[in-house]
């Protein structure tokens, strides 16, 4: 049995980032890492642009100007202004080449075809210069940047429709067990609805990993061997739930061994999730999680999360941890370190009732895991505890 620290260390050391690339439509690139520097194909803005509603002026010594035209956003015509002439202009509109300043409308007095400003102004006032944000041929975004909604909007404004990004891993989720059936089917005696696959798929989607396929296998060695072999060959990450213990119908460990999967560890001194396996074959990482749902999800956040971040070459690869003040008492049973479902808020944390590894009701309320190390057996109100913040 391995310690939590050693298990995490083995994951970090054994997984190397993937630098495979793929082309994504810009609207589907959120959350991906740019594979190359992006060069701007245009100036942004692509013309001198009005920063506000007002009047574009060809400056002269007087405070009075003759109003000759109007330019709205999207207009393509270019009025020619002589010194002392002005055009009505609106935010985002192209500033005529012969205009050299814009006065906001609140500081203008309009009398028929003449306007009067209340003071002399400097050239280029309220004009966004050509290429102010980025110039044609310059780097718009550097490689290695994680794309977010703002980046998607920015790149779209440059006319970019697709980008080269670091490919996210192909992931297979395999659930095992004769007792598992699909929701929507009437339960027979001894059966339960299978939930781990949807739970883990949703957790992956929440982290913006969408290349996920779901597979189910009965407690049959040959079928387990066949499915695992296929999944390992066609995916970067395989997550298995159930079948990793040593019962008569737990075939996952035996199948992984026959497939020559290199075991990095099996069984971690922790609760929940003691029967946790991590191994590799070629470039595929394999996690076999406990079948109990709460244990499986805890192991996902503590271990699989790290593997995913490492695959994407991210600098922050563990979930954030905070020191929080406990607002309840808790007595730990046994000598194993524990991860406890909890609610964290403003520096305080409440350890929830119902910590059984088979129960998800408590987990559904939790936004954190409180970690109790091996040498701590009791938590009292106002004690400081280490708290892992779960993704929201």
Automatic annotation (TrEMBL):
GO molecular function: metal ion binding; molybdopterin molybdotransferase activity
InterPro entries assigned: MoaB/Mog-like_dom_sf, MoaB/Mog_dom, MoCF_biosynth_CS, MoeA-like, MoeA_C_domain_IV, MoeA_C_domain_IV_sf, MoeA_linker/N, MoeA_linker/N_sf
Keywords: Magnesium, Membrane, Metal-binding, Molybdenum, Molybdenum cofactor biosynthesis, Transferase, Transmembrane, Transmembrane helix
Cell division as UniProt keyword: no
SUPFAM superfamilies: MoeA C-terminal domain-like, MoeA N-terminal region -like, Molybdenum cofactor biosynthesis proteins
Enzyme class: transferase
Protein name: Molybdopterin molybdenumtransferase
Organism expressing this protein natively: Neotamlana sargassicola
Organism lineage string: Bacteria, Pseudomonadati, Bacteroidota, Flavobacteriia, Flavobacteriales
């Amino acid at each position: 049995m391995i310690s939590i620290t050693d298990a995490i260390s083995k994951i970090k050391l054994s997984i190397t980032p993937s630098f495979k690339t793929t082309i994504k439509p810009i609207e589907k690139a959120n959350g991906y890492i740019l594979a190359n520097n992006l060069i701007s194909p245009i100036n942004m803005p692509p013309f001198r642009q009005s920063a506000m509603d007002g009047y574009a002026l060809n400056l002269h010594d007087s405070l009075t100007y003759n109003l000759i035209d109007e330019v709205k956003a999207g207009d393509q015509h270019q009025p020619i202004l002589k010194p002392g002439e002005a055009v009505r202009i609106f935010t985002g509109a192209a500033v005529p080449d012969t205009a050299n300043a814009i006065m906001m409308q609140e500081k203008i007095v309009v009398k028929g075809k003449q306007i009067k400003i209340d003071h002399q102004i400097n050239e280029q006032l309220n004009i966004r210069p050509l290429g102010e944000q980025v110039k044609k041929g310059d780097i718009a975004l550097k490689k290695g940047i994680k794309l977010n909604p703002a980046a998607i909007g920015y790149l779209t404004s440059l006319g970019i429709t697709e980008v080269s990004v670091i490919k996210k891993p192909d992931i297979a989720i395999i659930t095992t067990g004769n007792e598992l059936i699909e929701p929507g089917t009437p339960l027979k005696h001894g059966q339960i609805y299978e939930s781990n696959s949807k739970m883990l798929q949703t957790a992956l989607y929440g982290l913006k990993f969408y290349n996920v396929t779901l597979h189910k296998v009965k407690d049959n060695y040959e079928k387990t061997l066949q499915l695992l072999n296929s999944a390992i060959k066609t995916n970067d990450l395989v997550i298995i739930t159930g079948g990793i213990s040593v019962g008569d119908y737990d075939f996952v460990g035996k199948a992984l061994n026959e497939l020559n999967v290199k075991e990095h560890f099996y069984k971690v001194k922790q609760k929940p999730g003691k029967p946790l396996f991590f191994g590799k074959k070629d470039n595929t990482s394999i996690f076999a999680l406990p079948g109990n749902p709460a244990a499986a999800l805890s192991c996902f956040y503590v271990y699989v999360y790290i593997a995913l971040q490492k695959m994407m070459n991210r600098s922050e690869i563990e979930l954030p941890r905070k020191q929080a003040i406990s607002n309840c008492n808790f007595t730990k049973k046994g000598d194993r370190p524990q991860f406890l479902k909890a609610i964290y808020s403003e520096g305080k944390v409440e350890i929830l009732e119902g910590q059984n590894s088979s129960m998800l009701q408590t987990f559904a309320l939790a936004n954190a895991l409180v970690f109790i190390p091996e040498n701590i057996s009791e938590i009292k109100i106002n004690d400081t505890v280490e708290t892992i913040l779960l993704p929201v």
